[in-house]
Amino acid sequence: MGTFIKTSLLAFFLLFLLSPTAFAATNDGLLRVGLKKRKPDRFNQLTEHGLSVEGNARRNFGFHGTLRNSDGDMISLKNYMDAQYFGEIGIGTPAQKFTVIFDTGSSNLWVPSSKCYFSVACLFHSKYKAKSSSSYKKNGTSAAIQYGTGSISGFFSQDSITLGDLVVKKQDFIEATKEPGITFLAAKFDGILGLGYQAISVGKAVPVWYNMVNQGLVQEPVFSFWLNRNADEEEGGELVFGGVDTTHFKGEHTYVPVTQKGYWQFDMGDVLVGEASTGFCADGCAAIADSGTSLLAGPTTIITQINHAIGAAGVMSQQCKTLVNQYGKAIIEMLLSEAQPDKICSQMNLCTFDGARDVSPIIESVVDKENGKSSAGLNDEMCALCEMAVVWMRNQIKRNETEDNIINYVNELCDRIPSPMGESAVECNSLSSLPTIAFTIGGKTFELTPEQYVLKIGEGDVAQCISGFTAMDVAPPLGPLWILGDIFMGRYHTVFDYGKSRVGFAEAA
Ligand SMILES: *[C@@H]1O[C@H](CO)[C@@H](O)[C@H](O)[C@H]1NC(C)=O
Ligand SMILES: *[C@@H]1O[C@H](CO)[C@@H](O)[C@H](O)[C@H]1NC(C)=O
Question: Where does the sequence pass through the membrane (predicted)?
């Protein structure tokens, strides 16, 4: 493939807040990358939230990592909000540190270049300085990777890559000199390390993993991911190069052959909702295991039906209804008591200023990044919705409508608000009544409970529950494809068996 498209899916304003990672390796031939989790503050979480998806869609979530000692050479990863898992690598001699997403849905390694002068995103990230590395070798061939929300471009260079104690020599990677758009601006990771097959590598560059195998750095030609889905725990996850960490799964893995060596693609049996005996893929569906995607993506026709079955509606609609539910009556009362309409939302602490949001989300995120704080995107959403609701309610009051009629009418309007990114949300308090959704792979059933397929952002009144099912249409011949991202890989420990060309899943522990 000439052009590899990696797209990013962003919930509202995408801000990646990924923490730094540390490496440690041991001497049993396994390299472990640990993933850490961090709890974000209760507000602003949507904004901090990146979701990544492979293919033709428009969304992205990121990843983190730290190495950790265990009975093997392992790298530990950091987990940010169950949506982003990443780890640290070194490039050059001495090693220059970078935080990268370990992405099985792409195959190149890229990091920002010290020669990136005109992209703001480069200002806020570690940059590779070829001059400071004694193992650097010039290449200079230009390269670009397209994303749904932007792109990166730059040129190839060659250097040593440090993963824990392992050093991969003569690795071709992309020094990004342009990172336009906001996708990478607020990203907490510097770059991406692709773990897919060479067939989808831009410039046909030999992937890091191939060189690890070819240079005899791993015991077995296998790597495996464990992603912790408990955001309260310090350990975010673990990427093991050269084997599996037996402490992180139960029972046996179910293996299926890789059917297309580009992504880690395999044939999935069916997708079943609740008690249904026939599902949406009765004739089989192609799927990929993608650590670089936060959610679970599938064809629009099917995802729409699943989201209908679980009562998911557009994110903005859901948020709008939450607002009406919690504040609707109070807003009406304030309007009736002749409060100044443009002050109501700030009086209710839903808007910081009196409707004046003069700081654009981008600038805000940059400012906040500098201050080491998160930005206020979720507040902005609530503020904007509140102001809309005030206008709508005021009109209804002028028509002498009853309170109940006003609330009903505004709820109907909520349904009509388009979702900027197409995410769907469910009522957080409805989780216990939602069906289990099952995937059949290799003749076995892999279930996800509502708690597992819904991504909960925030707590209490402002909690948002995002459906883990997101629509993404990958055009033929590559597609249609299902993308089993972190939502799935969190519940199921995943082995990427390069030697035997197969993918294995077992219950994570
Ligand atoms: C530059 O890197 C590309 C991608 O790995 C490779 O195909 C090409 O041969 C390299 N060119 C030189 C001059 O090293
Ligand atoms: C609303 O009610 C007031 C007083 O009850 C009346 O004067 C006014 O004409 C009514 N407005 C409409 C639009 O029905």
Answer: none
Q: Please choose from 108, 139, 158 the residue to mutate so as to test ligand 1's pocket, defined by most ligand atoms within 8 A of CB.
A: 139
pTM above 0.70, yes or no: yes
Q: Which ligand is closest to the CA of 108, given by its number? A: 1
8 Å CB contact between 489 and 227: yes
- Asked whether the beta carbons of 163 and 89 are under 8 A apart, the reply is yes
Instruction: Give CA–CA dist 113/176, Å, rounded.
Output: 5
| Catalytic-residue membership of 159 | no
Q: Which CATH number fits domain 38-44+74-219: 1.10.530.10, 2.40.70.10, 1.10.4160.10, 1.20.1250.20?
A: 2.40.70.10
Domain residue extents for the chain: 38-44+74-219, 246-300+422-508, 318-355+377-415
Domains 38-44+74-219 and 246-300+422-508 share a fold: yes
* 150-163 and 84-91 strand pairing: antiparallel
The fourth-level CATH superfamily of domain 246-300+422-508 is Acid Proteases (2.40.70.10)
Question: Using a 6 Å CB cutoff, which residues line ligand 2?
Answer: 399-400
Indicate if 190 belongs to the active site.
Answer: no
CA of 400 to the centre of ligand 2 (A): 6
Contact 334, 344 (CB under 8 A): yes
Task: Kindly report, residue by residue over 128-165, the tens digit of the pLDDT.
Answer: 999 999 999 999 999 999 755 568 999 999 999 999 88
Report pLDDT digits (tens) over 12-58. Answer: 222 222 222 222 233 344 555 554 333 322 222 222 233 333 222 22
Catalytic hit among 73, 290, 368, 497: 290
